[in-house]
Amino acid sequence: MVVNAYIIDAVRTMVLMRMSFEERLGSHLKRVEQELQAAKSAAVKPAGLTVPQYAALFVLDEQPGISAAELARRCLVTPQTMTTILRNLESAGLIERTPHPLHKHVIETRPTAAGRKALDQADKRAAAVERRLAAAFSEEEADTLRALLARVSESLTTDPILKS
Amino acid sequence: MVVNAYIIDAVRTMVLMRMSFEERLGSHLKRVEQELQAAKSAAVKPAGLTVPQYAALFVLDEQPGISAAELARRCLVTPQTMTTILRNLESAGLIERTPHPLHKHVIETRPTAAGRKALDQADKRAAAVERRLAAAFSEEEADTLRALLARVSESLTTDPILKS
DNA sequence: TGACGACCATCAGAACTCTGATTAGTCTCT
DNA sequence: AGAGACTAATCAGAGTTCTGATGGTCGTCA
């Protein structure tokens, strides 16, 4: 019945034009990213942070006084999203925002002492997750994974469907 | 000054315990997943669907009458999230929900004619994105990528930090 | 100088996503 | 039959994320 199975599959593909979820690369990517998100979330939660809040604090600690727009670019989110994240961080007393002395329209953001403390606490556990991840691969394997992901990225960002 | 660079890096690592964002595998995964999400979103948008709505309709079309809880498992979201998605789909007239004849507590969900039409329209473009993705890799490369992602997954789900 | 474009910040609205909690039906085992 | 476990559905609340729109500021270039 191998032939029948083949025919059925071919007909299904041609008629319905459907690919099952499991055979799609995107499903694998989504699941893994979701698990990573869950692991990081559990890691930073004891510090009272969410993952995006942790990311924002992380960048702020390296570059205090950065603008919200620049922060958004570093954290791979839109400025609107960053506004929301900063609002929550500020009301928790983890950051403070002051107008830029020269550019009046720019607001400088920097972590408070409490913010740095929360970041330290969160980073210990978050970095442990990343280290564990890194330890699961040889240098060569990690490079291969990065290269393949870059290929995915390139394939997606040059996709003509986005322009139609 | 190679030695100096090495020392500086080592000190930074030991004192701050920080890994920069760019060297983290998680960043690559997040960015790629985000791009994939954006591509799919653009693909299904002309049909008036969001990506989660498309995923739900897709599974519903294959298995009409499935319960919301089962649907949530297939789509990799929580039942609460699926409730939200189904509420939006129902108010758009793309699905209909009727009580199960035997199990009174279960509600059967199935796509309407309009739902199937939207799915067809969305799937043409969404499948094109996946096909383009698949075409960017040889069979062997795709297998390698899947295998490496599975290793990431395994590393994450067995992480002891989640139990502490 | 004045117009235009680029950029910053933010509001508004919508969707998705989670955790936590509640309510209720089904099943199993005693 | 009844207790306990499991599952289904959903509400409540919070956070993140997007698109779209608004208003203000800065710099450049005619």
From TrEMBL, chains A, B:
Residues 22-154 form the HTH marR-type domain. InterPro entries: HTH_MarR-typ, WH-like_DNA-bd_sf, WH_DNA-bd_sf. GO terms for molecular function: DNA binding; DNA-binding transcription factor activity. Keywords: DNA-binding, Transcription, Transcription regulation. SMART domains: HTH_MARR. This is DNA-binding MarR family transcriptional regulator. It comes from Kribbella kalugense. The lineage of its organism: Bacteria, Bacillati, Actinomycetota, Actinomycetes, Propionibacteriales.
